[in-house]
Design a protein that fits this description.
The complex is a heterodimer of chains A (about 325) and B (about 425). Chain A has a two-stranded antiparallel ribbon. Chain A has helices spanning about 25-35, 35-70, 80-90, 100-115, 130-140, 165-170, 175-180, 185-195, 205-215, 225-240, 250-255, 260-265, 280-300, 305-320, and strands spanning about 145-150, 160. Chain A is globular. In chain A, α3 runs parallel beside α5. Chain A is built from 14 helices and two strands; from the N terminus they run αααααββααααααααα. Chain B is α/β, with parallel strands linked by helices. Among the domains of chain B are: about 110-280, Rossmann fold (3-Layer(aba) Sandwich); about 370-430, no CATH class. Helices cover about 25% and strands about 20% of the residues of chain B. A six-stranded mixed beta sheet of chain B has the order 1-14-13-17-15-16, sandwiched between helices. Chain B has a four-stranded antiparallel beta sheet with strand order 2-8-7-4, with no helix packed on it. The longest helix of chain B is centred in the middle third of the chain and has 15 residues, at about 180-195. Chain B is globular and about 60 Å long. The chains are: A mainly alpha (about 325), B alpha/beta (about 425). The interface between A and B is large, with 42 and 74 residues.
Chain lengths: ~325, ~425
């Protein structure tokens, strides 16, 4: 009986006694890792200033969370990766050349107002990074719409400013866009590589798709939101994208430009602020795609991804109510 | 070809390799046994012995009270030395009979009746009832009750549950390898009792040798079919098994008999065979003693009432870092606070986990609404909502999310990245509202 454990040394706990290895922080850090290619491309095209701004967003986000939790005597959770991811996403959504206070203000709004004041991780209604960006866009409209020309800017520090492809599309039409980029195949190529004006992390479609592929592979996102988002947007771009004629628009330009890919794969798929039932996610994604194109084609802004996702965030709880899962064995018509 | 299965479910590491190669061996006969008078779902037994009384192996020590009840028998020959409350695996104190083993192994008379299959269904059912047979997969529901469906619910299918989807456990697997014919005989008795001519044996596909052996055991039995099932927890849950084998969905809150099906476990089938043929009561069962925390995992044939501590000793004792002893499997089993807990009819395994493998519930995070639990739930529920409502005390809201359809398999809790004790929240809510 020597080796028998004394009873009081046994651990008591409720079933199940085994758990998967997945943790919330592993998910957060993995999503952050999936954004690394996009961040690297942003750094390549927009230079040290872009790197500085993204880093500042991350630091400010983590610091805001720490200070808030310290001030309110809450448990410090800055290591769970959530604040890091919020900062990274906000940074990648900023124009490259904003002054230093922009990342700081945006991060504080994102983390403190959007996330912590609503109850912290899991309780926020809106995507924190997007609220941060929306706040900045409305408060500093001028600074938030200065777009640096993509160059290998490590050599040339005073980057010229230019317009984004969507801005050109909105103001001057598709003909001008093609004129600037040569022909449509060159335009697609530049959009894929990211050699265009835009927010730091949104320009390189290849890098974003690479990160998205990693998220699919790890099972962190499913196809439902990205496919319904991009499908609906593509369909609308094709149907209504051209002036004067139906079904003559160019969906590829729309899908590859602006924040479409960054939004569809990395922002709309945020667990906390999207519906959690798959059928509801299809509706949510479709709503995002529809609103994005509505704003792009008919609204005042050249880009609509951010507002589209934020508006659909409001509907997530409602959608979740409407799309309850079917209980095993329940008849379809049997409703209580 | 896609294997039969259900929607949802999880893939925990199965860890069966620890004990699957170990043939069933009889456990050492214990010096004394502790036989709880309630080892089943339903009314506890009425005490049928007194202190100092000599009993033979197989003699009744507790008589059933009411229909949903089941007798208990002595698993040794010896003398009743105490009648007192003892803890069972769930932590509950249950009146129990303590019998000191004389070591003679003298049986109360058994009679071999090789012609048992020609007994009438009612005679066979009476034998099952008298033998104290209950579901041996863990729930321990009296078998004869399942075999007495009301007239308006005709049964046309019997399924033997060989899924053994709980990780680690290999008791049913070993029985399929070692006693396939007896299982089929038990199934035939069940089919005869219910007047059914369609039988299934459902086995998860991680036991290909068991599938082969069972298939050859049913060769020539045109009305019995062996189903290979996808390896997925909880494939052995009644409703999931019925869906996979017979293609029928048991409606919410309904019972298998509502779709004409009776499910019994592998061990139960063998007990039914032994009861029908020899009149042998259920006084022993196969228990897998396993886990990384035990020196020498084994599949033991254990007398009911043997204390868990004796089984652990027989398997070489704990390895250095033992932290947790679980009665049953890791998904639905109970961590025991004392190893002075008897093996009962529903004890399928004793699992000993080391510190590194045992999950501690010290901290959990908020629900991040990732939906993994929704995808994992075999019942199509929304465990995320159940856990959040229950956590905040909104039990009625939890009920509106089909709280009472949860059978607590733990799949949601296994996958939760925030390590929330979802099943426990569900249990809490279930105690706070009426169904």
């Amino acid at each position: 009986m020597e080796n028998l454990k004394k009873d009081h040394q046994l651990t008591l706990s409720v079933s199940p006694h085994v758990r998967s290895e997945e943790t919330t922080s592993r998910i957060m850090w993995s999503v952050s890792a999936a954004l690394v290619p996009a961040a690297v491309m942003g750094a390549y095209f927009f230079g040290p200033k872009a790197i500085f701004n993204v880093a500042l967003c991350i630091i400010a986000s983590i610091l805001s969370e720490y200070l808030y939790q310290k001030a309110t005597a809450k448990k410090i959770t800055v290591c769970d990766g959530s604040a890091f991811l919020t900062g990274l996403l906000l940074g990648l959504n900023l124009p490259p050349t904003v002054p230093f206070y922009i990342p700081i203000v945006g991060s504080a709004v994102a983390v403190v107002i959007t996330k912590q004041l609503f109850g912290g991780l899991g309780y926020n209604v809106f995507n924190p990074a997007l609220i941060g960006r929306a706040f900045l866009l409305i408060s500093f409209p001028k600074l938030m719409t200065i777009w640096a020309e993509p160059t290998a800017a490590f050599i040339k520090l005073d980057a010229k400013t230019t317009a984004t492809p969507l801005g050109i599309l909105k103001e001057e039409g598709v003909a001008k866009l093609l004129e600037l980029f040569g022909d449509s195949s060159n335009l697609y190529l530049q959009l894929l590589s990211g050699h265009r004006a835009g927010s730091i992390g949104e320009t390189s479609a290849i890098a974003l798709l690479l990160g998205a592929a990693f998220l699919f592979y790890r099972g962190y996102i499913t196809w439902h939101i990205p496919v319904s988002f991009l499908g609906t947007a593509g369909l609308m771009a094709w149907a209504f994208g051209a002036k004067g004629a139906l079904f003559a628009g160019d969906p590829i330009v729309h899908l590859l430009s602006g924040g479409m890919l960054l939004g569809a794969f990395f922002m709309a798929t945020d667990y906390v602020t999207c519906p959690s039932v798959k059928a509801g996610q299809l509706l949510f994604g479709a709503g995002c795609g529809f609103l994005t194109m509505l704003i792009r084609l008919k609204g005042g802004y050249p880009e609509g991804v951010m507002f589209a996702i934020l508006i659909m965030n409001c509907f997530s709880p409602l959608i979740d109510r409407g799309f309850k899962t079917k209980v095993f064995g329940a008849k379809k018509e049997a409703k209580k | 070809m896609a294997l039969a299965t259900f929607k949802g479910g999880i893939h925990p590491p199965d860890k069966k390799e620890l004990s699957k190669g170990k043939a069933i061996t009889p456990a050492r006969s214990p010096k004394r046994v502790v036989i709880p008078l309630s080892q089943h779902i339903g009314a506890p037994c009425k005490l049928a012995v007194s202190i100092g009384q000599k009993v033979k192996k197989g003699e009744t020590v507790g008589a059933p009270e009411g229909f949903v009840s089941s007798p208990v028998h002595s698993s040794v020959a010896g003398k009743v030395v105490a009648i007192a409350d003892f803890p069972v695996a769930t932590g509950r104190m249950v009146p129990s009979v303590v019998i000191e083993n004389s070591g003679t192994d003298e049986w109360a008379p058994l009679k071999d009746n090789p012609d048992y299959i020609n007994l009438s269904p009612d005679e066979l059912k009476a034998k099952v009832k008298d033998a104290g047979i209950v579901g041996m997969g863990g729930a321990a529901f009296p078998a004869h009750v399942k075999l007495s469906p009301p007239k308006e619910k005709p049964i046309d299918v019997v399924i033997i549950n060989g899924a053994e989807c709980e990780p680690y456990l290999t008791a049913d697997y070993r029985l399929m390898i070692e006693r396939p014919k007896d299982i089929i005989e038990g199934l035939k008795v069940l089919m005869k009792i219910l007047g059914v001519n369609k039988g299934f044996v459902g086995i998860e596909n991680n036991k290909p040798d068991a599938i082969e052996i069972m298939k050859s055991a049913v060769a020539g039995e045109s009305n019995i079919q062996v189903c290979a099932l996808e390896v997925k927890y909880p494939q052995g849950a009644e409703k999931m098994l019925i869906k996979a084998c017979a293609g029928r969905e048991v409606p919410p809150r309904a019972l298998p008999m509502d779709v004409g099906v009776v499910v019994q476990n592998i061990g139960t089938a063998i007990a039914v065979y032994e009861a029908a043929r020899y009149g042998k009561p259920l006084i022993e069962r196969v228990v897998t003693v396993t886990g990384e925390g035990i020196k020498e995992p084994k599949n033991l044939l254990v007398k009911i009432g043997t204390l868990v501590s004796e089984l652990i000793e027989e398997c070489g004792g704990y390895s250095s870092e033992t932290a947790k002893v679980i009665s049953g499997g890791p998904m639905m089993g109970f961590a025991v606070y004392s190893t002075e807990t008897p093996v009962t009819k529903g004890t399928s395994g004793v699992l000993v986990l080391p510190e590194s493998g045992a999950f501690h519930l010290d901290e959990f995070g908020p629900c991040i609404r990732c939906g993994r639990c929704i995808d994992a739930c075999p019942m199509g529920l929304m465990p995320s909502m159940l856990s959040v409502y229950s956590e905040k005390g909104f039990y009625e809201d939890a009920k509106a999310y089909n709280l009472f359809d949860c059978f607590e398999c733990g799949s949601c809790t296994f996958v939760c990245p925030s390590k929330r004790p979802i099943v426990q929240f569900v249990r809490l809510a279930k105690t706070m509202v009426k169904p």
